[in-house]
Amino acid sequence: VRTKDIGATLKRVFKHRKMYSGYKKRHFSSRLDFYRSSNYGHGWDCGYKNLQMMFSSLLGNPQMAKHLKQFGIHEVPTIPELQGRIETAWKEGFDEEGQQELKHLLDETKWIGPMEVCALLRSLRIRSNIRDFSNTVENRRLGIDKLMSWVTEYYGTRCAQGKIAGVIKGPGMCPNCSGVQKSKAFIPPIFLQHPGHSRTVVGVDVFSNALNTRVFVLDPSLKFGEKLHQVNLGGVLLGRGSPNLGHLSYQIVYIEKNPFFADKQHW
Q: Does residue 101 contact residue 107 with C-beta atoms inside 8 Å?
C-alpha cells in the first residue's frame, strides 16, 4: 500500500501542533512516498518497504533519477526486484558475508537489514554508509543521545546546502524543508534498524535544549494511509523516552552528501 508524498501530509498535519518551549526549527527529508507492509508481508517485509521509501525519494531527485536510469531503474522496484538486485550486488562482491548467511532472497520471506540495503545502494554506485548507536544496560540513553545528535546534524548540514541567505530569522520552520521556499538541497531519508524491526527517519524537530529533540519516523506497520490525522501521532514524532526508542542498539543507513562514485574501488 502506497501513500504518495507523505512529507506533504506530515507538514500539513503537524503545522499547527503546539510546540514545546525552546523550539527552533523543523527539517524534513525531500519528497518521498510511504510504503506500508501488506497482509502478505506478515512483518518480514519491513526492510523492503523502507528501501522502497528510500527509492521513492531518490527517484524524485532529477540528478539521482538520471543516475538510476543507467541501471535500468525508472520506478520504485517491487520486492522481488529488490531481492534480485541485492543478489546481484552480492555477486559483484558487495557484502559477501551477507551472501554466505542468507544464501539467496528471491521468492523468499527472509528479513533484510542495513547490510543488504547498503550493499544494494553501493552496487548502484551510490555512496552509502552504516553507523551504529548502542546503549548500555546501565545507560539506555547513551545510544539515543548520539543518534538524536547525529540526525540533527544530518538534516542541518544538508539543509544548509540549499539555504537562501537571510531567509531564516529566528525560531520557526526551516524554509527549505517546510516548503516556504523551494529547496535546492536533496535530503534523502534515513534507514533506521533496531532489533526485530526497521523504520524510516524523515525529519527532525530541533530545540534549544537538545534533550527535547524529536525525530519523524515512518513505520511500515502503521496503517494510516491518507488518514494520518486519525492515528496516534506519538507513533510518528518520537523523542527521548519514547517506548519506540527504548532498544539497546540501533543501526542506520544513510547516503553521503556526495552520493556518486565511479567504481567499487572508490565507494
A: no
Which grid cell sits at 233?
Answer: 501521532
pLDDT at 235: 64
Query: Could you report the per-residue pLDDT of 83-103, keeping only the tens digit for each?
Result: 999 999 999 999 888 888 888
pLDDT < 50 positions in the chain: 164-172, 225-226, 229-232
Q: Distance (Å, rounded) from C-alpha 75 to C-alpha 170?
A: 39
Given a contact cutoff of 8 angstroms between Cβ atoms, the answer to whether 23 and 205 are in contact is yes
3-state secondary structure (DSSP) of residue 53: helix
At position 261, the amino acid (one-letter code) is: F
- Residue found by looking up cell 537571510 in the block: 166
Annotated active-site positions, please? 46, 197, 219
pLDDT, one tens digit per residue, over 167-223 is 444 444 555 565 555 556 789 999 999 988 999 999 998 888 888 888 999 999 876
Distances (CA, A) of 70 to 65, 93, 114, 263: 9, 20, 24, 14
Angle between helices 114-123 and 46-59 (to 10 degrees): 30
Using CA atoms, how far apart are residues 265 and 267, in angstroms rounded to an integer? 6
